[in-house]
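To illustrate this point, we now present one chain and its tokenised fold:
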Amino acid sequence: MKLNYFSAIGFLKKYISRHKKNFIMFYFGWFFDMILSFSMPVLFGIMIDEIIYFQNITTFLRVSLVFVIMSLFSCVLYFLIYAQHHYLMNMYTLDIKKDIFDHLLKCDAQYMSDANSGDIISTLQHYSVECMHFVIRNIIHFINEIINAVIVTAYIYIISWPIGIFVTAAVPVSLYLNTKFSNKIRKYADQQREIYGKYIGRVFEVFSGIRDIRMLGGQQKASRNFVNDQKYLFKINVKTGILSLLSKNVIGLASLLIRLSIFVLAGYWTLNGNMTIGVLTIVIAFYSLLNSNVEWIAGSYLDAQNRISYIQRIHDFLNSPAEDRWKGENDLVITRGKIEIMDLCFSYNKGSYILNNLSLEIEPGERLAIAGHSGCGKSTLAYMMIGFYSPQQGSIKIDGQNLSDCSLKTIRDSIGLIQQDVLIFDGTIKENLLLGNRRASIQDMTAACQKAGIWDFIEELPDKLNTVIGTKGAGLSGGQKQRIAIARIYLKNPKVIIFDEATSSVDNETEEAIHEAWRSVLQERTSIVIAHRQSAVMLCDRVALLEEGKIIETDTPSGMIKRSVRFNNLFAIKQGEKGV
């Protein structure tokens, strides 16, 4: 859905209604300020005429007192207006940011794999603020400026209808020129938003891969990409700025010609005694005010086109595919842990099947290794087991229950997944462990860490479980991160566990230590081990060889070594060599 001015208002309506009282107070604050701005020139004109033509000092002083009181009231009013503004800037944008963040947490896994992280961060932090500016500047101020322009024009007609005609002539000219430039500005704004999102995404990639860039000697390439992105952004910004400046100057020129005509006509009538100096002052002040109104209205409309592109991005993101589409509602209850995968098919983006009529049975308590070349569908199968993807054909059943009929919450409560890239956030070890079970006690966490083989390391730390380990576990080795992940699985205590290439990036010594922890955690649980290393396969009771989305062979690890050429080629095992 392509948003326009009114559909953008409709999209933001639910957020506005949550703070309706504050927006109403904010609007009327500016409305009264508009009345004051209209009244001031009238009072000033009366004061001039009372002194020059009537020499009435009493009336002059009374009007002056009203003028001063209204000026003081304007100062108080500004304070109240901006108090509401700061409240709305925080609370209104917080509502939008919360919806964006909540949707981010439940976004469809396939959508997120294709999404640009920089664009999403910009949507969360920057574009949500633009929604506030749109409501304040492009709705509230826009309405008030139109009302002000109508009142001022009507008053000028009352003073002098010929001048009113000159003034009115400026409005359609400004509107025509505004419409002419708005579509081009919107086009450049859309390009700018898209390029900026990609640029931020690449910057984050550099931050996360700075070590690899240095080791590979890629600093020059990264620097060149950065400069090219900056140049392209600069080019779009220049085009947008020139177009905006051109539109404002063209509109300003038209207004200037009208203003000069009004000044000549009003000056002529004043010299001939058909208009007082006070009225002349009002006409000049009101035309300046009206000119400012028209420029604001035209500029606001142009500005709105830019902001609508940001609102469009929020709208599109909030309407992107999410896990809400998952239809299962039943509770998954695992008692034995038998897994049945029948004729399973799945493809990304309607391409060729990455899983093609895959069928497999895993007995309760069995440890099954799934081996195969990269891209054969091993990780995809793991993600389907925990509900990241839905089968396009076939089914996955656990103890006779189809996962597609079960709720995602109970699926993920009952099935644990440990990946190669372990989630470690900036906090204490205790806070990271509680991701597995928020109700776990210190004793539970201690026991879990002991079983995972990480407790000796934790005991040596100055604050033990309360030690802060830094962003992405900067204070931990790869093996320590894996063992914290294993401790979390202990605390979660699922009936089914999946290890997805969890030791592919650690050395042999660390891998052996992790395998010791595996042996403990896998007891009496059905488990699937997806591995690239033979040593992980040898921990399992059976191994299934996956190729082109199908299971082509199954046997015990030792049986595979003896009889399977494909298995031996996969792990480069010499003929006759025994696995240990």
Summary: The chain has two domains: 5-197+239-318, 339-571. The CA atoms of residues 266 and 280 lie 7 Å apart. Residues 574-580 have pLDDT under 50 and may be disordered. Residues 5-197+239-318 form a domain with the ABC transporter transmembrane region fold fold (CATH 1.20.1560.10).
